[in-house]
Amino acid sequence: MLLQRVITALVLLPIVLGAVWFAPTPWLYLLFSGAGLLAAWEWTAMMGLSQTAAARGRRWGYVLLSAAVLGGAWLVRQAWPWLAAVSVLWWLCALFLMPGFPGSLQRHRPGVPALGLLGQILWVPAILCLVILGGMQEHGLRLIYLFALVWAADVGAYLAGRNFGRNKLAPNVSPGKTREGALGGLLLCGIYAVTAGGYVFQPASPRQLLLLVGLSLLVAALSIVGDLGISMFKRLSGIKDSGNLLPGHGGILDRIDSLLSAAPAMALGLYWLRL
Fold this sequence. Notes:
By secondary structure, the chain is mainly α. The protein has ten helices and two strands, in the order αααααααββααα.
């Protein structure tokens, strides 16, 4: 399993970084939108749409709807801060749903229309914000910074959890995650923000560096919420992995869950703090 994860990452990483570094913004949006449409297909299973032939048409219909929404979002991309704010608000709401899970959602399980709308909130603002971040600086350095920040949170949590994990973070949502692991991830992100942040953002004062580190820690914390949030809906639907497209990783949603929450928070934070 670990070897599969490493091989898949080594194949995908040059493609993603090459696109961020060289691709014009519209093409980058198309690439990320393609991943979003794959996520939309996986999300239809969490919406409760079955694999039957009758339901397959509804699943494809939802993917086409997602394509139309993504196209519309590009046309009104100047409104991205509002879309990002909606996304961040949802993830904060998801955080408060987790302590009562599964009873909280089982008693009031969202219907197919509500889950369909939620899906658009999950990936449309995130994809738009990823592209916004990619265009903020030459060669997409701010976007690459975000990718590495999320990876640092994941790696730090894995190492700290494996060696020091004792107390479960959200046992009913993701039994393998621990509070010690989350703290380890945040610690590694803090170190990364101090070192890499100074190069990427070139803060003009210690205050700006402090703001950047604080924002990075908040984004890293929200990336953990994104991971747990998608896990919550997978458990609600009785699904272990969102798909099997990526060997060793599962589906697209399994791979981008943290970015769905982190990207809007980072873009909005940089916009508000004028960094």
